[in-house]
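Project standup — Tuesday

K.O.: blocked on the structure for the chain from last sprint. Re-posting the sequence here as requested.
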Amino acid sequence: MNPTSHSKIEPEQPPIFLASGSAARQTLLKKAGLSFEILPANIDEYALLELHKAKAPTDKALILSCEKALAVSREKPGVLVIGSDQILCLGDKILNKARNRNDALEKLRILRGKTHRLVSGVAVARDGEILWQFTDTADLTMRDFDETFLHAYARIAGDALTDCAGAYQIEGAGAWLFSKIDGDYFTIMGMPLPALLGYLFDMQGIKP
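H.V.: unblocked you, prediction finished:
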């Protein structure tokens, strides 16, 4: 007589929303095998940064990440919401995305030959409450390139000039800009992914 087999029923995983329109963050989560929906948060990031301008960059990255997660979690009761943001700072100065190509070139002139820091934050919220938050930093040193190199880079960089805070995508042509990189790849991409997946797995029972 064959023993009766029992199939194991996995507990249902809670729905997950990403409160960001960032293509890079969406790609990171998709490649990691996470199932989620996208609902960019409607918050005024510049107003929040101005309100908290005296705070440290790590605090600012967390504030933006938390506010994104909270905003969507209030719209979508009962679901887990991931909020994430990144800040680029050169010393104590925060540099925002370039408005146009010329603005991007000027930003790259400021950054060349120097080390700047990327601060990436991530938070998880549910029903208007932050459940978890985390930040990580990476330090990137740009080559002291000349104008010929700068314009050659700009020709192939494309939308990265204005889509990214540093006017580069490290996974693309932006890799040419750097002589030294000290930090986690995912943090540079804009989300501390291992820490986030660790929280979802250990504390929420989320699996790929």
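K.O.: great, moving the ticket to review. The CA atoms of residues 43 and 68 lie 7 Å apart. The longest strand covers residues 129-142.
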